[in-house]
Every structure is written in C-alpha cells, then in structure tokens.
Amino acid sequence: MKRYERYMDGVKVSDVLHEKLTNLKAPEKRPNPWLKWGALAAVVALVIGVGAWAASRPASSGRFPGGPDAELGTLTTTDPQSEPDPYPVEPGGDPLETPRGGWGYEVWRDQVVEYIMLPALNWADASTMERLDYCLAPPGADSRGAEAADVTALCGGEEAMRDHLLWDGMDWRGTLWFLEDGTPQAASLYTVGEGLRLSLEIMKGGEVPSCVVCPDEAYERAEWGGVAITALENTGYCVQDDGTELRESREVSFVADGVGYKLCLYAADADRADELCARFARYAIDGGLDLDVLPADGAVDNAHYSVGEPRWNDSGEASSALPDKGTPPPEMPTSDIIHPGEEGYVEPLPEP
Amino acid sequence: MTPSNRLEELVGKYENTLYRAALAILGTAPEAEDAVQDTFLRYLQTRPKFRDESHEKAWLLRVTANCCKDVLRDRQRHPTVELLDVYPAPNAETGDLLEAVLELPPDQRAAVHLFYYEGYSTGEIGRILGRRPGTVRSDLSRAREALRRKLKGEF
Fold first, then answer.
1. Helix count (H) and strand count (E) of chain B?
2. Is A309 a domain residue?
3. Residue A299 lies in a domain
4. pLDDT at residue number A212
5. Closest by Cα among B141, B143, B133 to B24
6. Residue A121 has what pLDDT?
7. What is the pLDDT of residue A55?
8. Is there a smaller number of Cβ atoms within 10 Å at the N or the C end of chain A?
9. Does A89 touch chain B (CB under 8 A)?
10. Could you please report the per-residue DSSP string of B82-139?
C-alpha cells in the first residue's frame, strides 16, 4: 500500500479549515429529546414523531425498517433526530471502553448502509431472586405446534432474522395459542444450537409471566422508545447434550404495543449473549415481530398441559387433563436448565 | 494550559490524521472536513481525560469514525462515481488506486486506512470502529482481494 501511503501523506487540511478548527467554541448544550418534557412539548413531539414514523415506513409493511418489504437500493435509516446521541461520552470517562449495549450494527445492501442503534440494557443479577412457576396458556385457547417457518414469518422473514436478530439457521419449535376465532394470542418457542439455547415467549395483553420475581425498587430499567426493559443475568445455566455448560444466562422482558415479550438465553460467550438480547429488544420494540401473521390452521382445543403446568378450565380453576385430541405440541424442554438454588446447581469456576 | 491552548495543541497534532481517516471513510473532502470539525466540537463538549498520547489519538479517531457513520446514515446518493470528483486531486500514479479504494464499502475503507496507513492492529481497529476484531479481519481480507482483482496485484 505504498502508493496509498504516499497519496495520504500529501493530504492535508486547508488553511481555512485549520483556522475554523482552532477557533471552535464549545457548543451550548442542546436539550436531550429523551429527557422529561413539558406536557405540551410531549404532545407536539408525539404528533410529529408519529407522522415521521408513518412517512418513513414502506407503504406495504408495518415492519421494521430494512425488513423484507423495505425497498432495497435506498438508504433506509432511522431518523437521527429521533434517536438519542448514539455515542455519548461522559466527562472523565473512558470512551473507548466498549459498553454492554448502547452500540449498534450495520446492515449492508450493496453500497448502502443502514446503521441500527442498540439499547444499553441495565442488567440485574437474578441469582438470588425468588423463582415461581407459571402458565403461559390463555384459558380456553386452541393450540398447535410451531415450526421454524412460523418463527420466520413471525420475525418478518429470513433476511430480517439473519441481519437484525442473528437467528439465521436456527431450528425453532414450540407452541402457539389462538382464541376461538383464530386470533393468535401467545407463543412459547425455543431453539437449541451449538453454544446457544434460546426461548421466546410472547403474550398479548401484558407482561409475560416470569419465573423470576422482579428485581427490587432500586433496580432501574433501561428504556428504549418509551418501553421499559427488564434485563436479568445469572438466571442459571444450561447443560447441553455433550456436557457443555452454557454459563452466560440472560433474560430480557418488556411490553411493547400491548404485547409482552420475554427472551431467555443461555450462551457460552458473554458478548454474544448481550448482543443477541439487545438486538432482540430493539427489533421487537420497533415492531419487527408480528403474532398476527400466524395462521391458526390445525390448532385444537387446548387439551394438553403447557410448560408442565395444570390446565385452567373456563371457570379459572385447575383441572385434570382432558381427553387427548391429537399429537400435543412439543413442550419446551426444561431439564437442561439449572437455576441458582436448585438441587444440582454448581457454582461457576472463578475467573483466572 | 487554557482550554483554547489545549484545543490548538490537539488540532495541530491531529487535524491531518483525522482528516485523512474521515476522507478514507467518507470519500468526499467537504464531508470529511465536517466530520473533523464535529470531532473537535465533541471534544470541547466532553473534555475527556486521556491516559496518554495513544489513548488521546485513538479517542479522536473513534469519534471521527462515529461522526462519519452519522454522515453515512444521512447520505442519500450512491457514493462511487461522485466520490472521485470531490476527492483531493490524485495524480497519474494514484488515480486508479483511489478509484479502486473508493469502490470498497466504507467499513472496508476504514479498516484499510487504519491498518495500512495508521498501523493499528485489528483489535485496536475494532475498538476504534466499534466492531469485533474478527469482523475487521474479514473486512481487510475482502478489501485486499477486491483491490488485488482491480489493480492486478499492484497496490
């Protein structure tokens, strides 16, 4: 690259630019759009924001920008004015320290780049938190097994899964629940791969029940797009078939547009765990997942236990299992996960 | 040292370094000038404390790279053909090389510049650009391959 070096050695700033640089003054602090506003400013911003959001969406899709319906060949980016400063530097801090989140990733289409910011999640230690059992299945719902193609459709296509979620090549399974009229209501999905185990639960109408009692009042949830995100780590570990222990455990949950999401993850690599969680949070909050695309074909009256819990009858009381009405959807495996405090839990080895 | 003296010192030391990096990433002189200006404005806003000179330089380059990413997000046009028109004048020796470099995607151009011109390792480049070292190595490998093909091995 000698020629390149010789060329660059000759590149210098002009006298005009040099003069400008030496005479720069510190700018006045501009208000951070994510700080608290007065009521009027908030309303105006909401109106403008909704208008800009609607204008920026591809006409045929309500999905995440850059998804399969987005027009390729144009620079599809999020509006920089609506995003917080992506590279905040605190005075006195080390800005070269890679944060746990708060960075982003690029999606390339030929020569055009789309840069997606990721939220900086605030992780709470779940190792000492109380655990509860819960049931995701809505009372009286019909259910069917979920296939990989369902999850692909749910996430907006293979391209979106690959570029935004890093979920390419994953073999998802699980259960989908529908109301009597065929409206999708909830999903319990899981996938196991090399060095990774994911489970995803989605539920319309509110928070997905969590088996971990929420952190105490001192815990401050990260926010993204007005959505508060609960982020837990040290929820347990996963022992894979070959004996490998996936010790990096994460759980992120939030409610966006009236739909509750909970992603549980076990991985070997901490960075990968953090990134997958941040990407999922951003993608889901921005509307990248859509339960309503899933057809109810083949769903039957929910006659089976879900996630190993008692079935609720219409009066809300637990009842014994009803007669089998077909092949039950696969239950999410749980025997490979060991939570802190459970029998057989082994503390991680200390760091070298 | 007063703040304005400190700024003048940093400008004197790094203005060309930052300008060259911004030019490599963005490919246009006017946008590179804006990125350098924004970098020093960011410095004035935050006044970070540096451990040493190498930290100081890496921080400034990181902010420059971030400012360039902001420009790339806003860019609405295809960069290839127009870029050479607004690049500082190449000569006969470097014209085809610059054309080949400008055809690389910005992330590869950034990696090439920081690796070959500034002499950073792939790990250091990863921290400056906010990318994984493995990704930087892939960028370099793809860039070398593309340049080799276009320039028939001589660059």
1. 8, 0
2. yes
3. yes
4. 61
5. B143
6. 83
7. 47
8. C
9. yes
10. HHHHTSPPP-TTTHHHHHHHHTS-HHHHHHHIIIIIS---HHHHHHHHT--HHHHHHH
Mutation target for B interface from A24, A107, A269: give the one with most B CBs within 10 A: A24
Residue A166, domain member (yes or no): yes
Sign of the CA dihedral running A297, A136, A328, A151: positive
Q: Which domain holds residue B127?
A: 3-151
- With residue B32 as reference, give the H or E element that holds it: helix B29-46
- Asked whether the beta carbons of A308 and A135 are under 8 A apart, the reply is no
Q: Most distant CA pair in chain A: distance in Å?
A: 85
Q: Do A5 and B116 touch (CB under 8 A)?
A: yes
**Type of residue found at A34:** W
Answer whether residue A11 is part of any domain.
Answer: no
ipTM of the complex: 0.85
CATH (domain of B22): 1.20.140.160
Q: Please give the C-alpha separations between residue A177 and each of A138, A143, A153, in angstroms, as whole numbers.
A: 7, 4, 16
> What's A257's DSSP letter?
T
A20 to chain B: closest CA residue? B37
Amino acid, res. A142: D
Number of domains in chain B: 1
Residue A119 has a pLDDT of: 80
pLDDT at A88: 42
Pair A83, A92: CB distance under 8 Å = no
Q: Write the Ramachandran bin of A120: left for phi over 0, alpha for psi from -120 to 50, otherwise beta.
A: beta
User: Taking a C-beta distance cutoff of 8 angstroms, is the pair A321, A304 a contact?
Assistant: yes
Give DSSP secondary structure letters for A310-325: PEE-TTS-EEPPPPP-
The answer to whether B124 and A97 have CB atoms below 8 angstroms apart is no
Q: What average pLDDT values come out for chain A (352 residues) when binned by 10 residues?
A: 85 93 78 49 51 44 39 32 38 45 64 72 74 69 90 92 88 90 91 89 85 63 86 84 83 92 90 89 92 87 47 43 49 72 68 47
Of B11, B112, B113, the CB nearest to A21: B11
Token pair for A97? 């320290």
Per the document, the length of chain A is 352
| Alpha-carbon dihedral sign for residues A3, A9, A10, A13 | positive
Token code pair at residue B38:
């924004």
